[in-house]
Amino acid sequence: MELIEPLWTTAHDIKLRLMVIIVLANMFLALRLYGLMAKARFKAAKEGRVTVDTYRATQNEPEDVAVFNRAVVNQFESPVFFYAIIAIGLALGVTSWITVVLAAVYVIFRWMHGLEMVGEHKVLKRRKLFINGFYALIALKVDLFLSTMLWA
Predict the structure, then answer these.
(1) pTM higher than 0.85, yes or no?
(2) Alpha-helix runs per DSSP H in the chain
(3) 98-108 burial, b for 16+ CB within 10 Å, e for fewer?
(4) Which of 19, 81, 83, 136 is the most exposed place for a label (fewest CB within 10 A)?
(5) Nearest-angstrom CA–CA distance, 99 and 115
(6) For 10-41, what is each residue's pLDDT tens digit?
(7) Is a pLDDT exceeding 80 seen at residue 3?
């Protein structure tokens, strides 16, 4: 136990700062996608491809615009679990360096997934990125559980 203890006890203030940066990076992804969605919607309206009524219930959007809406919605699905895991870990004081690395991996995959979705949009590539991010999320859950059992 003494051998792995430094993963939880070393440089707590640096771990905390890194976790905040990682969480903010994930939040910035959602904001970036909101901006891209707004830009795409404005362009479609300017070109006359949509009307105000299109957004009364956000339906009948052209596919090239709807993909941005789906990308934004996607930021409020699995990331909710990510934020909960990070908040619980920080509140309990059981965030380890493993947590920091896994959180960074998760956010990197979220960024790659989000940019693929609004970029080339290759479905199989996007799916692989999502699954890899989901594996990182599962690993974060396991890390939270084990850290809580060992250190809380």
Answers:
(1) yes
(2) 6-9, 12-46, 63-74, 78-92, 97-118, 123-151
(3) bbbbbbbbbbb
(4) 83
(5) 24
(6) 898 999 999 999 999 999 999 999 999 999 99
(7) yes
